[in-house]
Amino acid sequence: MDFDLTPAQRGMRDALRAFLLRECPIEYVRDCDEAERFPVELFGKLAAQGWLGLPIPEEYGGTGGSCTDLAVFLEELAWHFEAAANCYYTTVVIAADALAHFGTEEQKRALLPRLARGEIRFAFSLSEPNSGSDAASLRTRAVPDGDHWVIHGQKMFCSCAQVADYILLMARSDADAPKHDGITMFLLDPKAPGVEVRRLRKLGLKPMDLNEIFLTAARVPKDAIVGAVNQGWRNVLKTLDYERCCLSAVNVGAAQSCLDKALAYTKEREQFGQKIASFQMSRAKLADMEMEIDAARLLLYRSAGLVDRGIPNNRQSAIANLYSSEAYVRAALNGMRLMGGWGYLMEYDMQRHFRDSKLAEIGGGTSEILRIVISREMLR
Ligand SMILES: Cc1cc2nc3c(=O)[nH]c(=O)nc-3n(C[C@H](O)[C@H](O)[C@H](O)COP(=O)(O)OP(=O)(O)OC[C@H]3O[C@@H](n4cnc5c(N)ncnc54)[C@H](O)[C@@H]3O)c2cc1C
After folding, report:
1. Is residue 314 within 8 Å of residue 272, measured between CB atoms?
2. Does residue 243 have an active-site annotation?
3. Which of 184, 215, 232, 358 sees the fewest Cβ atoms within 10 Å?
4. Are residues 374 and 288 in the same domain?
5. 2 belongs to a structural domain
6. Which structural domain range is residue 286 located in?
């Protein structure tokens, strides 16, 4: 099995790296983190360079990258600025994927080229106050009314809703159907009457806003749905492997960034007349980080390769997601240990990884849910 990137993928990564070193300096990352603001300038530049079009098919204004291409892109972006990679995943990738697979021709023509040009952003809203891991038990209700749907309910944990032009909102469109069968994906305008978006305060990933959404008789035109009515849950399941690869790529890139920062620090800092890196216990931590990130990267590219070849890889993508998320959390923790008190200071970047990494074990399914997915596949 060949895990090597193609010359084109290496060229893309090198071009992106040069671009990010120039346009996304660490001061910019710190500034967005401190001000808790979406990296709008960086996204403008990514759009101008055509990077926002990577997950969008060529016929709709994108560059039609494969899952592996996207993994290379997200890994590199996350190395420089993890929150920006999460924002990219949320505002671009999820919608590009959903629209390309399930959107009507009209929706694709209207929305995908604008998404590629950075003119519009999306958010995705599935979770609710009473349905997280058990997402399909959602209660937000959509009822047909003439040429509209009327939506009532409350959504929870919607990333990027503050900066989104559309929310892909999952709501129950058939109250009598079994819980997985009566859900539809709606294209909601967050500024429409009856929609209230409220920002939530959180631990990390500060540039990516997190929100709850209150829906009181919010009206959505009949044609503003993605995919067929009552098929929303099935659509989500069909794109899960691809999305887990994307999340794994973010984890791998961010974990590598932790390791590189820890390595640089331990080669500089001296105690007892020696570099911290010369102590065996420091080296063991560095070796563990290296080993786990290496393994996570291999799992990621195995899974992305399977997606690209159209081979079902529910188990492999869940393994990549689970392993990379826990490897990232451990890398951030080891990074903090290696930096002693200095890692605890806001002027160093390790604390940001320490705060940001935790979401990796929650967002694409918690570690417990991913273990359930893996063991279910094993026991089939
Ligand atoms: C920063 C952030 C951003 C997010 N962005 C989005 C977004 O953009 N859109 C969106 O829709 N959602 C988003 N989410 C929500 C996220 O997907 C959920 O938080 C996640 O699915 C877990 O749901 P929960 O928080 O309700 O936890 P719960 O489901 O209540 O779980 C609590 C604990 O119970 C465990 N548990 C649950 N069921 C089982 C089981 N069967 N067996 C064993 N253990 C179990 C869980 O693993 C966890 O440890 C975001 C969350 C965060 C924190």
Report:
1. no
2. yes
3. 358
4. yes
5. no
6. 239-378
pLDDT, residue 380, reads 87
Contact between residue 323 and residue 294 where contact means Cβ atoms under 8 Å apart:
no
* 366, 371, 375: residue to mutate for ligand 1 pocket, most atoms within 8 A of CB: 366
User: Given 100, 120, 140, which residue is the final one in a domain?
Assistant: 120
Q: Is residue 187 part of a domain?
A: yes
Q: Catalytic: which of 243, 292, 326, 361?
A: 243
* 140: in domain: yes
| pLDDT score at 284 | 98
Minimal-distance CA residue to ligand 1 atom 43? 368
Residue nearest to atom 14 of ligand 1 (CA): 157
Clarify whether residues 223 and 326 are in a common domain.
Answer: no
Count of C-beta atoms within a 10 Å radius of residue 180: 15
- Among 362, 375, 376, the mutation site with the greatest number of ligand 1 atoms within 8 A of its Cβ is 362
Please report, in tens digits, the pLDDT of each residue of the chain (380 residues total). Answer: 677 899 999 999 999 999 999 999 999 999 999 999 999 999 999 999 999 999 999 999 999 999 999 999 999 999 999 999 999 999 999 999 999 999 999 999 999 999 999 999 999 999 999 999 999 999 999 999 999 999 999 999 999 999 999 999 999 999 999 999 999 999 999 999 999 999 999 999 999 999 999 999 999 999 999 999 999 999 999 999 999 999 999 999 999 999 999 999 999 999 999 999 999 999 999 999 999 999 999 999 999 999 999 998 999 999 999 999 999 999 999 999 999 999 999 999 999 999 999 999 999 899 999 999 999 999 98
Mark whether 66 and 131 lie in a shared domain.
no
* Pocket-forming residues, ligand 1, beta carbon under 6 Å: 90, 124-127, 132-133, 157-159, 202, 205, 210, 359, 362-363, 366, 368-369, 372
* Domains of the chain: total: 3
How many Å lie between the centroid of ligand 1 and the Cα of residue 302? 26
